[in-house]
């Protein structure tokens, strides 16, 4: 039986842990990225699509994953860790279609259970999910898409009751937004629909692609993987599969930046430079960050001098998140902290989430020169010497950005609320120490 740590179940109130960091050391050596969090979560949900065993390899050891494993176990799946990072999950029979509300409220991805439960049992009751508080996290696209498949939806203040009394029917669906989890949910539900479903304006992030490939490996038939139009043949029997989760490209992007601003030489293994990082390369080059490619590895050279590359005619360059294959929203906070270390001026424009930039006041308190123009735009003028501070992590990525700031600051910083960082980065302090960082996890 999968033993979920008590601290995860009570994550809302737990964690008296903090990182104490002394900045100044170059981050250098060889780094092996974890598996992609945002692939692992829908892939764990997708194990409910079959009564056969699914084996997932390279599953990151992070809090969100622990919560998701606990959720599928509470629904009746058997969850066994075969080896570190290798999980065998079998949902031979489901004992409930109502995932544990307390666990659901801890992670946004809990809503990904809706698609598989509808596919398997024709019903699901889910509370409003949790996740990062980075602005409104709409579920409108999920609900719209389910309704197109014939799902009846009752929306209560605290939960959603989804039923498919007449079964699921394939449909030609144009999503109102290219929502990542919305696409994943409708794809999973469509595997059990009668006939063919076409999902247009689909999200195409690497984790959406990997989920679709997993479903094909289970015996499904999805065409158009990687494009904005997915065609799903419904009603095929789905069986067991063994899938290796690809590297987490947000973690890779975070560590490229970390090495560049601390001056170390870092080799990042299995980084998928061509598949995952072409746009990140273009954007990081605007900050003067360079890297080399060696097979599937990325090598960040030591001693880089970061200088903002002006746009044509000397215009101030803009770094803006986009839908895939554009610059990932989850790297915007990282790019912002990197910009504080580059000579020049850059505009950071985060249009997706209206609450993701408020944490810059913490960087300003460390010495960064930033004007927060409005909830979506910040002008960063660098380079700034940063000084250690007492900090609190508001969300995963801002938390990692604060870790980067603290690692290049003079003096000591303490970062509180690190359970937010641990949601997405596994054993961060331990892995950073192996690369030369002066970081310890303390109880406060
Ligand atoms: C578990 C998981 O996978 N979480 C990721 C997922 O969240 P999630 O699936 O929740 O994010 P969505 O793709 O649904 O939407 C992100 C935001 O962008 C807006 N939006 C999206 C598409 C669009 O065409 N127009 C539009 O305005 C949405 O209203 C929302 O505010 O994708 C986000 C965007 O990459 C990432 O930050 C999250 O880490
Ligand atoms: C916003 C994120 O995650 P979630 O959607 O799970 O809250 C993230 O990974 O940066």
UniProtKB/TrEMBL annotation:
Gene3D superfamilies: Enolpyruvate transferase domain (3.65.10.10). It is an enzyme of class 2 (transferase). InterPro entries: Enolpyruvate_Tfrase_dom (IPR001986), Enolpyruvate_Tfrase_sf (IPR036968), MurA_subfamily (IPR050068), RNA3'P_cycl/enolpyr_Trfase_a/b (IPR013792), UDP_GlcNAc_COvinyl_MurA (IPR005750). Pathway: Cell wall biogenesis; peptidoglycan biosynthesis. It comes from the Bacteria. SUPFAM superfamilies: EPT/RTPC-like. Pfam families: EPSP_synthase. It catalyses: phosphoenolpyruvate + UDP-N-acetyl-alpha-D-glucosamine = UDP-N-acetyl-3-O-(1-carboxyvinyl)-alpha-D-glucosamine + phosphate. GO terms for biological process: cell division; cell wall organization; peptidoglycan biosynthetic process; regulation of cell shape; UDP-N-acetylgalactosamine biosynthetic process. Its EC number is 2.5.1.7. The keyword Cell wall biogenesis/degradation applies. GO terms for molecular function: UDP-N-acetylglucosamine 1-carboxyvinyltransferase activity. Keywords: Cell cycle, Cell division, Cell shape, Cell wall biogenesis/degradation, Cytoplasm, Peptidoglycan synthesis, Transferase. Phosphoenolpyruvate binds at residues 37-38. UDP-N-acetyl-alpha-D-glucosamine binds at residues 108, 330, 352. One of its GO terms (cellular component) is cytoplasm. It is found in: Cytoplasm. The active site is at 132 (proton donor). The keyword Cell division applies. Residues 22-431 form the Enolpyruvate transferase domain. Belongs to the EPSP synthase family. MurA subfamily. Cell wall formation. Adds enolpyruvyl to UDP-N-acetylglucosamine. This is UDP-N-acetylglucosamine 1-carboxyvinyltransferase. It comes from Ardenticatena maritima.
